[in-house]
Amino acid sequence: MRKQRIFGVIIAILLFAGLITVRSLSMIHWNEVQFSKVDISIQFPDNQTLIFNSNLQPVINTFLEEQGDSNALTVNAFLLETSLEALPYVADAQVYWNMDQRLKIALVSKQVKAVVMIGATTFLVTTENEVLKKPLEAIVDVPVITGVKDSSEAAAAGVTLHRIYLSQVFNDANLAQLDQSEDRLAIVPKGYNHTVWLNSDERLTDDLNKLTAFYAANTPEKLDDFKRIDLRYKNQVVSTTR
Question: Which of 14, 170, 181, 241 is deepest in the core (most CB within 10 A)?
Answer without folding.
Answer: 170
